[in-house]
Write a structure and sequence with these properties.
Elements lengths: L2 H17 L2 E6 L5 H13 L3 E5 L1 H10 L15 E6 L4 H11 L8 E7 L2 E4 L4 H6 L3 H40 L1
Helix pairs in contact: 1-3
Length: 175
């Protein structure tokens, strides 16, 4: 590969790192063409970008971002594919779904993930990554929890107003 081609690939990877907030480092080697097609199709449907990379070029792209990704450098060995996503748990769900099919030979394998500014290493982190909620989901839950007591108070005041009005009307009718 020519030097200008390498710099173009590094630039594209750096752009992808800036465009997507989360990425998963996986090993998809050993998947046949049909299984790779299924994985790519599922990634497309979930808005996950799957890219097979050379380890040294990806490491240079990581270094070029200005963020400290040095804990990932030891993972960059062997065959490497990167799953870029703005949804924190979509790639983990895809990996787990693909592993259920025994024809995939337990592939793809999760090497590491960078999700919500944290590093996750190894297959044993897959369940934790699947259960992670995005910031939007957490904010929605918090807003729902905050709204619930307010709605209860408003509903009690509204029903209480009707009750007081009913009592006053009844007392007025007694005379």
């Amino acid at each position: 590969m020519k030097k200008e081609d390498k710099s173009k690939v590094i630039s594209q990877l750096k752009d992808a790192l800036g465009q997507y907030s989360h990425f998963y480092v996986t090993d998809t080697s050993g998947l046949n063409a049909e299984r790779t097609y299924v994985l790519r199709k599922n990634c497309f449907q979930q808005d996950v970008k799957l890219v097979v990379v050379k380890n040294t070029l990806f490491q240079k792209a990581l270094e070029a971002t200005g963020t400290d990704y040095t804990p990932l450098f030891d993972i960059l060995k062997g065959s490497t594919s990167i799953m870029f996503s703005n949804n924190s748990n979509a790639p983990a769900s895809l990996i787990k779904q693909m592993k259920k099919d025994k024809a995939n030979n337990d592939k793809p394998v999760l090497k590491a993930a960078y999700v919500q500014e944290c590093f996750y290493f190894g297959e044993d982190q897959l369940d934790a990554l699947v259960s992670l909620k995005s910031k939007e989901q957490l904010l929605g839950e918090i807003i729902g929890m905050l709204q619930s007591p307010m709605q209860n108070v408003i509903s009690a005041l509204q029903s209480g107003g009707n009750t007081i009005q009913g009592v006053l009307k009844t007392l007025g009718e007694k005379e």
